[in-house]
């Protein structure tokens, strides 16, 4: 008897839903957009892990959602300048508004310029200021480009105490890729930090895309890591395909172009 591939896709869709940071980070986002996002976060198939929004929408999202759905917001986003005061102001705004999670952009241009100590200090200060919130560090893997630099950024994020290392802002040409994920997952495993997680974001549009990252995560971190404490998907467009698959319809999305 051959395995039914639709069963695997439904499993992947269920995992992707439970691990989804449903994201809206458009410059023109309005309160009505965030209301709609929060309604979408509570699907007939179950809740997403979190919504991810601009800091100015945290209080609204927190009020609209049950406690089980976390509110994440971005800091130092999307540019990733080496601007600690800006990042700390974002973190303070998110914390004061009742946010649960901070997604901060690592100063990747500074890292490319060799300012390793300055980047490490930036991450350490952001980690200190953001406790007890969950901290995800966005390394912008597409701009770092090489496995060596992606590995170095991942190590810096983990050394600073990041809860998750996240691939991309979704605002640059290249978002999450299987190659970047492989490097990041290898570094997470090598760190020995059993609570550290991985977040794929930027261009993740289909359950087939998500299934690939789920398989990679399981292969490197183990099946026990396939939960929202260790794995997230940051995506503005993935939920439609998840719902299609869980409703028994064909996947409607095409896989990532990367
Ligand atoms: O942080 C998450 C990303 O901004 C989402 O990127 P996306 O719009 O390509 O799904």
From TrEMBL:
Q: Write out the transmembrane intervals.
A: none
Q: Does the keyword Lyase apply?
A: yes
Q: Which UniProt keywords apply?
A: Lyase, Schiff base
Give an example GO molecular function. deoxyribose-phosphate aldolase activity
- Which Gene3D superfamilies does the entry link to? Aldolase class I
Domain of life of the organism encoding this protein: Bacteria
Q: What is its EC number?
A: 4.1.2.4
What reaction(s) does this enzyme catalyze?
A: 2-deoxy-D-ribose 5-phosphate = D-glyceraldehyde 3-phosphate + acetaldehyde
Q: In which pathway does it act?
A: Carbohydrate degradation; 2-deoxy-D-ribose 1-phosphate degradation; D-glyceraldehyde 3-phosphate and acetaldehyde from 2-deoxy-alpha-D-ribose 1-phosphate: step 2/2
Q: Which Pfam families match?
A: DeoC
- Broadest EC class assigned to this enzyme: lyase
Q: Which family does it belong to?
A: Belongs to the DeoC/FbaB aldolase family. DeoC type 2 subfamily.
Q: Which NCBIfam families match?
A: deoC
What protein does this entry describe?
A: Deoxyribose-phosphate aldolase
* Species: Pelomonas aquatica
